[in-house]
Specification:
This protein is mainly α and about 550 residues long. It has 19 helices and no strands. It is about 85% helix and about 0% strand.
Amino acid sequence: MEKNETQSGEKKKSIVRSGLVLSLMTFASRIMGLIREMTKASFLGTGFYSDCFSVAFLIPNLLRKLFAENAISVAFIPTFKSYLEKGNDDESKKSTQDFIASTLTLVSFLTACVVVVGIIITPLLMPIFCKKPADSTAVNYAEQVQYWLAQKQEITYLTRIMFPYLFLISIAAFFQGVLNGCKIFAPSGFTPVLFNGIVVLVTYILAPHTENPARAMSIGVIAGGTVQALFQWPFIKQTGWKIRLTSLRKTFTNPGTRKVIALIVPTIIGMAAYQLNDLVSTSMATRAGEGIASSLQFSLRLQELILGIFAVSIGTVILPDMSGLANKQKWDEFNKMLLQAVKIMIVISIPVTAYSLVSGRELITLIYKNKMFDEESVRLTLGEFRFHIAGLTFIALNRILSPSFYAQKNTKLPTTAGIISFASNILLVLILVKPFGGNGIACALSIASLINTIFLFIFMKKLGTIQTGAVVKSTILYTIKISVMSVIAAVPCWFLRPVLLQAFEGHGRLISAGVPAGILAIAFAVIGVLELVITKDEIAMSIIKRKK
C-alpha cells in the first residue's frame, strides 16, 4: 500500500515538474513569437507585403493545425503508448519499431503529396483571397488591376516558398510524439523557440539581399521548420528507436498505423469545424463595423498568449501518462491524475482571469498601443478581451478533459462536443453581433467554450471508466473556492490601480502602463499565494513539498 502511495505521489510530482519545465519553454516560445511579430512589423509594416505574407502563410499553417498537431496528440501518442506497454521482449520491440517506421512513412508520404499538389494549384486558390476590381469605369481602374495582378503574383510566390513548411513541421510533430511518448518533453518544448529565433535571424540576414523582406521572412519559415525537425533527431536516437521509412504496402497494412488513421479522421472533422468557426466569426466581424475584426484578433492573441503558457503545456504532459494508465486499466490512478490536472488548471486560470479583468487596459496598452493602434483601438480590444478572458477557464479545462478521452482512444465524443460548441457559437454570434458588436462575438465564444466543457463532462458518463460524479463535484467546489480567493485578491488591486496610474502617468506606455501592471501582478500574486498557503491548498502544498 505504501509503495503504491509513493508511486502515486511521484507521478503527481512528475506532472507538476514536467508541466513547469514545459511551461517555461512555452513562455520562452511566446516571447520569441512576440519578437518575430515585432520583426515582421519592422520589415513589412501593415502594407502590401505584410498582407501578402499573412495570406501566403495562412494555407500551410491551417493544414498544420488540421493534420500535424492533432494527428500526433490525438492518435499517435495513445497508440504508441499502448505499444510501449506491451513489454521489452524482442517481439514487442520489433512491433513497436515497425509501427514507428510505418507512421513516419505515412506522415512523410501524405504531407509530401499535399505539398506538391498545393504548390501546383496555388494560383487557382488566389481568387479566394484576391478580389478582382469590378468597376471598369473607375478613374484608377488600371492601377487597381495592376495592384491585383501584383498581389496575386506575390502571394502565389510566397505560398509556394512556404508550402514545404507543412512537410517539415509534420516531421517535427512526429518526432515530438515519439519523445513525449517516452516522457521527454524539453526538446520539443524548445523547438518553437528555435523556430521563431531562426525566422528573425534569417529575416535580418536576407532582407537586404532579396527582392522584398516578405521573401526573406518566407525563407526564414522554411529554415525554422527544418531546424525544428533536425534539433529533435539526436534526442530520438537517445531513446533507442530508429528513424527509418518502410514500404507503402507495410505502412497501410500495419495495425497500429491503421488505428492512427481511424483516430485522426473524427478529429480532422472537429478541427475543420473549429476553423470554419473562426472563419464565420471573422466574416461577421467585418460586417459589424470598422476595426472590430482586427481588434478581435488582437484580443484573441493576448488570450492565447496567456492560455498557451500553461494549458497547452499541462495537456501535453498529462496525455502520455493518462494513456499508460488507461492501457493498464488503472482507473483509480487515472481519475486521480485527471482531477489533479483539472485543479491545476483552475488554480491558475481563475486568478489569471481575475487579474486580467483588473489590469486588462494596462496589458493591452503595454503590448499593442503604438502608432496606428490608438486609444480607440485600445477601447475596442479591451471590451472584447474582457469577454474573451471570461472563457479562459473553460478553454483551459477543455485542454485537459479532451485528452482524457483521447487516452482511451475515443475521439468521437470530444469531436461531437466540439461540433456542438461550434454550432452554439455560430448561433450566438448571429444573435449577439447586432446589439453588441465585437463584444457579442467575444461573448459567444466564451459561452460556446462553457457549453463544450459541459458536454465533455456529460459524455464522460458514456466512457464508464471515469468517476464523473466525483470529478464534477470536486471541480465545482474547487472552482468556487478559487473564485472567492481570486475576488479577495482582486479587490485591493482594484482600489490600488487608479493610485498607481496617477502616480506613473505621462511617462510613456512602458512606465505609465507597464509599471502599474507589474506592481498589480505582484500584489495580486502575493495575496493569492498567502491565501493558498493559509488554506493549505493541496496543489500549493504539493509544490512546496516538492521543493523541500
